[in-house]
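Support request, please re-run this one:
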Amino acid sequence: MKKVFLLSMLISLSATGYQLAANSGAASPEKTDVKVASPDSLNHIQLEELVVSGTRAGTNTPVSYSNIAASDIKKQNAARNIPAILQNTPSLVSFTEDGLGVGNTYFRIRGTDATRINVTLNGMPLNNPESQEVFWVNLPDLSNSLQNIQIQRGVGTSTNGSAAFGASISLQTAGARSESYGEASTAVGSYGTFLSHIAAGTGILENGLSFDARFSRVLGDGYVRNGNVNHTNLYAAISHYTDRQLIRLSYLKGVQHTGITWEGVSEKQMEDPQYGRRYNPAGEYEDEAGNRLYYDNETDNYYSDILQLTLTRELSSSLVVNGGLSYNYGYGYYENYKEDNEFSDFGLPAQTLDGVTYEQSDFIRRKLMENDYYVANLGLNYTQKRLKITLGGMYSYYDGDHFGRLPWIKFNQSVAENHEWYRNVGRKSEINLFAKADYQLNELLSFFGDLQYRGINYKFTGMDDDLMDITGEFNYHFLNPKAGVNLNLNERSRLYASAAVGQREPLRTDLKDGIKGESVTPIQPERMTDYELGYRYHSAEGLQLGANVYFMDYHNQMVQTGKLNDVGYKLMENVKESYRAGLELEAAVPLWENKIRIDGNATFSRNKIKNYVAWFDRYDNQNDWGWVGQVSEAYGTTDISFSPNLVGAAGITWQPTSALYLNLVGKYVGKQYMDNTSNEAKSIDPYFVSNISAGYTFKKSTIGTFNLQVFVNNLFNREYVANGWAATDTFADGSSIHWIGYYPQATRNFMARLTLSF
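Re-run finished. Output below.
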C-alpha cells in the first residue's frame, strides 16, 4: 500500500511540475532576473559538487582521503549498512552485532571509534550531539540515496558538527538526473534477508524543477538469535536549478526495528552445543519450573526524521555561497525483560499480594529518548587566480529527553501501568566557525591553512535511571589550527605534509559518570596533534599509488575500558599520554586494457598508551560479592584497545564489458585487545574474510534495463569474531575473573538482487 501511495504521489508531483513548466514557458523572459531554464549536464554536475565543497578535501589538499562513487557503492550494496559497504577502504574495520551487517553495524578508522568520526549529510552534521555517534541502523538502506562519499582520515579539514578526531565522513545524497527515470529492485538472501526498493524522478524540467523519491524496506532474521530487523527508509527531494543556483528541500525518514544484540556471547557458550555461535542471551529468563524461555519483544526501536533546506549560489565567477537549515527529530526506545530486580531500584515500595510481600520482581522496562536537533550553517567559497578562501559558520541546538517506563511488573499491587521511574533532559548548543585558505605559489607548490573555533554549552537536569541526580553544566572552547603544504613533483605525482590539532568534549555518559562519582577521575576533554606525510601517483593509464605516514599524538585520549553499561555503551577513560603511528599504502593497477583491475591497501601501525594504570572493582569473595572498593594496577606501555597493528584489503575486478563484472575481495584484520592491559586472555584473534560479487546488465528491453547482482559473503566459510567486550573483577584474596563477550560474524551467506531501471 505504501508503494502505491508513493508512486501516486510521484505521478501527481510530476504532473504539477510539467504544468509549472508550461506556465513558465508562457511568461515573458524580460520580466524576471533569474534564468529558469534547465542547466546543461555540466552545470548541473558542478552545482551538485559545490553543495559539499566547503567541507571536503580537494585534489591538492594535504590530507589522506578516499572518494567512493555511486557506482562503487552499488557494487557493495546488498541490504547492508554503510560501515559494511566501506569495509575495504584503508584503515577501516567494520563489525556488526547481528553478524550480517543488516542490523547494528559499526566501524573504526585507524582504531578510532565512531564517537570521534565526524559525519555530515550534504554538509549538515549527522552525529547525535550527546553520544557524538551516528547509529547507521537508524537510517537503513541510506546507501541507496547517496551519490558519493568522502572519507578523510586523521583530523582532516574543518567541518560542521562534532569533532573530526580520527576521521570525517562526508555523505552527499543523490542529485536530480537530466531525464525522468524509475527504478525497482528486490533482493533476497540468507537468514531471511529481504530488501525491496523503488525510486522515481521527473528529471530536471524546463522550469528547472525536479522531484525525486525513494522508498525501501529491509527485513531479516539475522545470524544471531534475536537479530531480526524490520526497517523502512524514505527519501524525497524537490530541487530547483538555474545556471548558477541550486536550491533543494529534502526529507529523509528512517524507521528501525531490531532485536537487542549488544550483549555478546562467551567463548564457552559458542563451543557449547546447547548454545552455539548464534546464541544471544537477550530476553532470557526462567519460568517457575526452571525452563529457559525468551521474552519475545526484546527490541530496539528508533524513528528518525531529517528535513534539510540547502542553497548553493554562484554570486560571481569567483564567489559561491552555501547555506542550509536542518531539523532532525528522533524518537526511540528499547524494551527488555529484567529478572529478579529490586523494587527499590525503580524507586518503588515492596508490593504485597495475597499476604506475601515481594522485595523483588520480574519487570519489563522501556528506556526512551526523544530529541530535536536544529542546525543552521553558512559558507562562502572565494576563488581568485592562485588563492582560494573558504569561510564557514554553524549554529546548532539540541534538546533531548531521556526517560524510563515500566509496562509490566510481575508482582504488582499498586504501581500504575507505564510507571515513569526517571527522566532527565539534555540541552546542547554549539557555535562552529572556520576559515580555510589554499594558496598556489607556483605550478609546483601550494600552501594550506585552516583555523576552527568550536564553542559548546552543554547542560542536563533531572534524575538518571539509577535514581541519582545528574544536574550539571559544562562549557568548552576549542581552537583548532591546521596547516599543510602540497608539492606537485610533475603532472602525475605529488607530495604533501600537514599538521593539525583536534580537540573534543566528553560524551554524555562520561559526564554523567563524573557527576555521580562513578569514575576514578572525572573525564576530561581530549586533544590530538595529527602529523601527515604522503605521496600520490596516478598515470594516464589508470595506475594509482599512494603512501601516507601519520603520527597522532594524544593528550588525555579517551579510550575504551572494555566494559559496557546496560545499554551496550562502551565505557571510556582518559589516558594522559598515548599515540597512534602508522603507514598507509594504497594501489590500483589496471591490466589487460583496463578489463582487469587489482586494488589493495594496507595499514601498518603502532597504537600505544604510555604508563597505563588500570582500575578494577574489588569484592570480598566470589560467594557474597560484597563490594569493598577499587584497586589499581600499573602496566607500563600497552596497546590501545581495539587497535590492530595490521589492517589490509585486496581485491580483483574483472569487467570484460560494461555489462558484466566480477569482484573478489579479501580483508585482513590483526589481533585486537578488548581493554588496554594487553592481556592475551582479553583479545580477539586475527581474521581474514573474503567476499565475491558479480553483476550483469541485460540489454534494454521494452520495459527497461534489468541488472542482476549476486553476492557471496565470507566465501571460505570462516568462523570468526570481529568485536567484543571485556571486564575484570578482583577479590580480596588476590584472585580475579574476566568477563568477556564476543560478537560472532556470519559464516558463508548469500544475497541476490534484481533491479529494473527505466
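The mean pLDDT is 91. The longest strand covers residues 360-384.
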